[in-house]
Predict the 3D structure of the following.
Amino acid sequence: MAEDASKSGMERALAFVIAAFTENWGTKIVAFLLALIVFIVTRDEVTRDFTIPLRVIEDPDRVLLTTPPDSVELRLRGPWANVNRIAAVELGAASLDLREVRPGPMELDPAAIVMPPGVVLDHLEYEPVDLRFEAMAERTLTITPVVVGEVDPDHQLAGTRVEPGSWTVRAPSSELDGLEQLRTEAIDIGGATGDVDVRVELEPPPAELTFLGVPSDAMPTVRVVAEVEARTGEIELAVATGEALRAALPELGDDRLPKIERVSVRGPRTVLRSIEGLDQALLPTVEVEEISGAGAPIPVTLRFEWSPEVAAESAAQLSIVPPLIRLRLSPQGLEDD
């Protein structure tokens, strides 16, 4: 009897346990989920660390001499569910506005960091930096053209000019100390026989400058003109004058008339070389003036003109020195020159 009673009690207990796990599944699952939600929502607050970048806003009137950190460390606090679902990219970046801060230890305003809903900033940490500044300055610097190479041997470099001749730059005051001019990139004038007119960029200066009026990542361009002109020279020509004088003054004997006059011709070397080999580059013309009385010397003017052998464009570049010669002739010969 006792054994039957014990066995019956055990069977009832086992039946109860089985029924507890097998009956009313839907109700039990719903209850479990509700309990889990309540657990998550009511779980104690937690903290979590994040690293976010530091964005620096430049001050146009001064330059920062020290280097701030690239990032800052955050510790957020809040319910586990809120904190756990935050991604670092959602936090954005911390800002350091150099237009507003003062020199001294860097201080970031925690209120400037926007927190996601349901969490608070528990701690903000970053590398300590002593902020030091230098004032920005502007200066207008002259531009010097850089010319390399040699022009054609019969020519010479007469001068160079730059348009514009100066440029205004902006930089920390210390960077401008001792900086008086800017230079252009090199311009090659090797073998030039005429003006060289080009546009070139400025050579990067030794200091970090901001060029006003151009994009920050670009160098200004300027016009450079190298003025090249022909070298001048002078040659002496012997001009036969006897025949022209004899035709104008037949009454005078041939032995009394000058046979040759020497004159100089000046102009570009290349043009002078083109007339050196001509048989008769100059032709004389004779002008006889009235004499003052019987037996008086005859005033004569010799003028020199270019012969048809000399091209008109060449003659236009040359000058004759002297352009005329005045003589006083008589039957006895040349009285004065």
Q: What stands out?
A: The first helix runs from residue 2 to 22.
